[in-house]
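Q: I have 165 residues here and want to know how they pack in 3D. Can you give me a structure?
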Amino acid sequence: MSTESWRRQLRWMYRGGRPNRLARVLNGLAARQHAAGLGPRHWVTLEVRGRRSGRTVALPLVVADHQGERYLVSMLGDRVNWVANVRAAGGRAVLRHRGREAVRLVEVDVADRPPILRRHLALAPGARPHVPVDRHAPLTEFARVAPTIPVFRIVADRPAPETEE
């Protein structure tokens, strides 16, 4: 399969910004694979509470590392359910990759997104057909699309230390 036909297939699977039936099945398989730690460490499963159902929703994502921090990027923009669920949950979520890590996802300012978006495209070939910028483009091109692509910084969600009174 050529690179262009592969990209067309990926765009078809997410036509309209939503996964079709095939994409949902493949995402379910990938979420289990990522959670089990079968693959690179930047492959994770995000678990977040559904804002309507209240059930835990799990999906596979790629963690982009940049300047010592970790980030999650929404390759399909801000009109996707996981972004709305994270926002509704106040950023509280769980990342899974050979274990569970409670995290808080903090939305990154638009001006700070371009280098993170470029790093994400370097790590996530499946995202490339959905982002209208070449992965080797200058940061100014990434700045042009940054307002439409949410980026979240991953912060460890540790409980507050207990104080003695």
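Q: Anything worth noting?
A: The first strand starts at residue 43 and ends at 49. The CA atoms of residues 26 and 60 lie 10 Å apart.
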